[in-house]
Structure formats: C-alpha cells, structure tokens
Amino acid sequence: MSEASHKQALYELVCRYAQAVDQRDWAALARLFTPDAVLKGPGFSFNGVAAIVDGMNGLGHYSVTQHHVHNHLAEVEELEASAETYCVANHLYDADGVTRKLDWGIRYRDRFVCIDGLWHITQRELLLDWSQDLPLQGAAQ
C-alpha cells in the first residue's frame, strides 16, 4: 500500500469516527479502536475500548450531533501513524424549552496502528480550541 493510500485510509477512519458518534453506532465506534486505546479530552479520560464506548454514551443528552472533519495531516511510518485533525462539532440540546446549539472547535491529536491491513486508533486526544453556546436559529428536527 502506498503512503497516499495509507493517508486516505486514515482520513476515512477519522470520518468513520465522526459518523459513528453522530449516529450513536457504538458497535461501529468500538471497531475503530484497539482494545487498549485511550480517548482523552478536557475533563475526561477513557482507557480501553469499553470505557470509550461507555463514555461516548454521555452524548445521549444531546438530541443531535454533527462532527465536521476538516484539515487532516497524517504522518505514516510503516504500521504506525500520527495525525492532527481539525473538527467543528455541533451539539443540539434543549434547555428551559429553548433548543440550543453548542459548537466546539476541536483539534484531535491521534496515534494509529495498522493491524491485518486495517488502521485503528490507539490514542485520541481532544483539544478544545474554542466553544460557543447559543439559541438555535431555525427549526431543528
């Protein structure tokens, strides 16, 4: 597999993470990580894939989320890789009868390993660069 092919596979992996989280597809999410993976961010650290899935269930208090993956720069060294990925994550929720939208400007710093030809996340660190929380303008379905 060429370096470009590996980098494309890594980009697809981080997009699959966003899709699994937004669709609350915890089985798909679990398949993206190694069993001993770590996911950490401001105020949380989940060690192991079971803890990651349990922790991500906390998104249930949002009616909808959308993670928009942007810049993704990966470095590949044989069967290991690292990347920094920019993301804007939108979270809709209700408070006092008002639908609100919490937006996060995120940078993920990731470590990956390729096992049997498939890339998996071994470590994901969520760095929160900014946030805003405003009443939603327009209809939310």
From TrEMBL:
Record-given protein name: Nuclear transport factor 2 family protein
Organism: Metapseudomonas boanensis
Pfam families, sorted: SnoaL_4
Membrane spanning stretches: none
Xref: InterPro entries: NTF2-like_dom_sf, SnoaL-like
Gene3D superfamilies: 3.10.450.50
Domain SnoaL-like residues, every copy: 4-124
